[in-house]
Write the structure tokens for this entry.
Amino acid sequence: MNHLLTRLWYIRFVSKLQGVLFVTYEFRGASLLEAVQQAIGRDAPTVEQKKLNKAPQKFDFAARARLGSALFVGEGNFSFALALARLKGVSPSSLLATAYKNEADLGDTAYDNAAKLLKLGAQVKTGVDATCLSKTIGQRRFRTIIFQLPNVASREVLYGQNPNHVLVTRFLKSGRSHLKSGGLVVISTVDSPFYEGAFKMDDAAKKAGFATPDIYTFNPKDYPAYSHLNTADEESAINEHTAFATFVFST
């Protein structure tokens, strides 16, 4: 009996997206020409198609703030804490807004927003390291701990990892010991393959003893008074990007 053996031709190529994400494509055909035609006719997925698999709804920051007992860390200019403190039904006295910089190093906007928070009855503290909270806030515990758009403004490898991954991992480990029972840690970031690879939130959660985080859409425009400011370089991710995600961590 004669056996007919079919020879398949393969074409493989690797696409590099934003310097960190490698995607391999493979095209098969009964002839080299067919495989080439498949490769030429196929569009590589765009960055938008690679975005995070987020829940359809947004995370309800207002509802969490109304529960009270909320800690804000890394507030470059205190504008996000102020935006929530002004919401109807929120008790500002139950909010603690903190910044990494010392009081003497705050910019004018941060100073003004801090004064407004204090006038509303909120608590404000400067010189707070989000990766070692006990040094500045003692043993206090909260229902919600919020860190908006963390970014160390460096790509230099630290302990074999992107420094942003190291930052959020240390923050989560520190924050976990300051949560009340049933409490949540909430982190918003830019939604892009680069930031997904930089933070590696699932790995950070595992290292810090949290469950895999839930992911929601975040739109800074929902908070008109919010004007994000990086602690490191005083730039704003809001002005440079259009898609954002909120990661919610629970134990």
About this structure: The CA atoms of residues 118 and 124 lie 7 Å apart.
